[in-house]
């Protein structure tokens, strides 16, 4: 195995992988389906291929079965708490980009607690801290304070902020940092450069190595993903799966989740999807990851429409956000005036819970505890299924 995933990535040609995916046949897809749950990277290519699109019903059925066996009829609920929309980067798909003339806001400790109070009122016990990338203003010491402030009120505090150093993660884990989400956006180096023309985020390799720093620091869970729409999705997801496999082999005690954000409209100027990802494509992507890895947690945010989210619950998704505000202070203010992107599903958390119940699912308002029975399954669920 290569020393870093960056060097592993360099062994592969994007174009050749794309050609191999295109060349997969119905027979390859059927073989991959017969190996659901123990699929390899060749199988994954078949599952995300155009040929795989003709087997969507079979993939969805297998994905649902595997997910029910592994996770039960349970959806973990989480909600983002936006700490700051300050950002020194230019990402041409994001409302927080430094060149966008929007009011900037960073929450004080008092304001963080006020947001937390509203979020707790919804029933959440798991909060995801989100911010733009403004290292000097919203850096490690700010995050340490935010985690320490919130930990007494939430069982799980996770984070989706700029990539940090290993030592920073080592300091935050004892304070209660549970999981870190760090999406590579795209694994296509040239397109990455194109969409990130300015700021620290321009450094593709530093971002790519974040998951390895997290693994070495001993984080409980790492969240990976691509921003779907920046590059050709089938090939991008192959490299995401390759990244996942690399990390799973090296940091096997860590849990992993995959998110499927599609580009959304946002405040300000920028670029919108260059590579369309349809609802059917997204279903295929979700199912392909489930058939690759039964242990994987699969997340879907409020970027997606109510109709799609209702449907996706039964496909293999294991966690969902609801009632999200994508601006700092959004929960107290009750409106998203400084939002990062437009959300599509604006239903209240209680409404999502009713939808889940009507579909035979139970909403769980926190992540699985790290102190489970070792199987990763909540203890009571393991006993029920014994
Ligand atoms: S995606 Fe993140 S880093 Fe890029 S502009 Fe938005 S907040 Fe800043």
Brief account:
With 386 residues, the chain is of the alpha/beta class. Helices cover 42% and strands 12% of the residues.
Low-confidence runs: 370-386
> Structural class of the helices, strands and pairings?
alpha/beta
State Rg.
Answer: 20 Å
Strand order of the largest sheet: 1-2-3-4-5-6-7-8
CATH architecture annotation: Alpha-Beta Barrel
Named once each, the bound ligands are: iron/sulfur cluster
* Secondary-structure element string: HHHHHHEHEHEHEHHHEHEHEHEHHEH
Helix amount: 40-55%
Cα separation of the termini? 37 Å
Q: Might you state the CATH topology name?
A: TIM Barrel
* Average predicted local confidence, pLDDT: 91
Number of distinct helices: 18
| Shape descriptor | globular
For the largest beta-sheet, the strand count, sense and barrel status come to:
8 strands, parallel, barrel
Any idea what the CATH superfamily is called?
Aldolase class I
The proportion of residues in beta strands is 5-15%
Total strands: 9
CATH class: Alpha Beta
Tally of separate domains: 1
């Amino acid at each position: 195995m290569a020393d870093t995933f960056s060097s592993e990535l360099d062994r592969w040609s994007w174009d050749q992988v794309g050609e191999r995916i295109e060349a997969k046949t119905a027979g390859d897809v059927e073989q991959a389906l017969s190996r659901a749950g123990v699929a390899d990277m060749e199988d994954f290519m078949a599952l995300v291929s155009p040929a795989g699109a003709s087997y969507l019903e079979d993939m969805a059925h297998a994905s649902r079965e595997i997910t029910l066996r592994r996770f039960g009829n349970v959806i973990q609920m989480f909600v983002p708490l936006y700490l700051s929309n300050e950002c020194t980067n230019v990402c041409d798909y994001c409302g927080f980009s430094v060149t966008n003339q929007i009011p900037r806001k960073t929450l004080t400790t008092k304001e963080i607690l006020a947001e937390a109070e509203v979020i707790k009122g919804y029933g959440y016990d798991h909060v995801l801290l989100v911010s733009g990338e403004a290292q000097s203003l919203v850096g490690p010491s700010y995050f340490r304070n935010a985690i320490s402030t919130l930990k007494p009120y939430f069982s799980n505090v996770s984070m989706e902020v700029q990539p940090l150093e290993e030592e920073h993660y080592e300091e935050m884990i004892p304070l209660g940092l549970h999981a870190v989400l760090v999406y590579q956006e795209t694994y296509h180096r040239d397109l990455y450069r194109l969409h990130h023309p300015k700021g620290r985020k321009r450094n593709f390799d530093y971002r790519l190595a974040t998951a390895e720093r997290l693994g070495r620091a001993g984080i409980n869970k790492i969240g990976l993903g691509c921003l779907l729409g920046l590059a050709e999705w089938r090939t991008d997801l192959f490299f995401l799966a390759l990244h996942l496999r690399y990390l799973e082999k090296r940091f096997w005690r860590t849990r992993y989740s995959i998110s499927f954000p599609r580009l959304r409209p946002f405040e300000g100027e920028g670029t919108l999807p260059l590579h369309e990802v349809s609802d059917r494509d997204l279903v295929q992507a979700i199912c392909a990851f489930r058939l690759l890895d039964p242990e994987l947690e699969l997340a879907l945010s409020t970027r997606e429409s109510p109709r799609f989210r209702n449907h996706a619950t039964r496909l293999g998704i294991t966690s969902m956000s609801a009632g999200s505000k994508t601006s700092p202070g959004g929960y107290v203010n009750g409106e998203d005036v400084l939002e990062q992107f437009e959300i599509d599903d604006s239903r209240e958390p209680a409404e999502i819970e009713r939808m889940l119940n009507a579909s035979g699912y139970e909403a769980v308002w926190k992540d699985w505890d790290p102190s489970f029975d070792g199987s990763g399954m909540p203890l009571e669920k393991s006993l029920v299924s014994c």
